[in-house]
Amino acid sequence: MARRLLWASLALAPVTWIVDAVAHPGKTALFVLSALSLIPLAWLIGEATEHAGEHVGARIGGLLNASFGNAPEVIIALIAIADNLPDVVRGSLAGSVVSNILLVLGAAMVVGPDHSQLQRRSLLWQLGLVAAAVLLLLIPSIPGFHGDPNRHSLALISIIPAVALLALYLVVTVLGIRRREHDEGPGDPGWSMRTSLVALGLATAGTAVTSEILVHSLQDFAKAAGLSQFFIAFVIVAVVGNAAEHGGAVVIANRGKMKLATQIAITSSAQVGLFVIPVVLLLSFAFAHPLTLAFRPVELIAMGAAAVFVGVVIRDGRSRRWEGVMLVAIYAALASLAFQLGDR
What we know:
This protein has helices at residues 2-9, 12-23, 27-68, 71-82, 86-111, 120-144, 152-184, 193-225, 229-254, 258-283, 297-313, 321-341, and strands at 116-117, 318-319. By secondary structure, the chain is an all-alpha fold.
């Protein structure tokens, strides 16, 4: 039923483009339409990447997943950089890390079987990578606490942690792929390679067009809704960019596969911290105003504290519903804090 709904909702994207080109509605309506349209597009990218990976083996499949699985977040970030909205970029990236390990993990623990066994060592390792990313991000962030956080010198300093994070991610990814190749063997392809690549290309192109509409309407939506751009980026854009992955993890947990669901939630955060953030930073030098990785103290604290707190929760290798409720409540508290703080 959920898959049928996602297939049908792919029609939202062309509807959004037509409405934007012909009807010229208000920016608020465009923001809502484009945000909803991105959810099925992100799901289709994930589906196409997964099916393509089944044809080429775990090694290249893992690289495909790394390259295209996070495409919606990267595309949204690059368009926001082109529009000179650095705070939106950093807010959405930080919000993506936090929402994965608090909201998604918490929701999965709530709907999944109580007292399920988890892959404790692997999850703690992924959380350690998130914490390492936060520590490296302190290098450009601390100088950014004073003065202009978007000054060019900080953009140059940001290259150091970006390269370190990307190198760490590549090492971890290669080791993980080798382990999967040894443990799993070849997959059973569902779609043909041609179908997978065509779907991947169309979904990525559709995401780019829809993301442009989303970003261009963000400021007007913020004013109309009385919300700060930081709140919209940290909560709404972050959740929309990961919505398909979020929903998938919760559905998998509801089916009783808690090990897989928790791996998706926490590994997604690690991917954002170690892959998406440095890639966005390095690509930003192609634009007039390169991004700096000068995150706000609240963003750094939220990411670091979320990783540490979840580590404490799962340290015994068991999933409990009340702990899931607590994680969701903590995320709601952080979202409320983002609402109150306003823009930088």
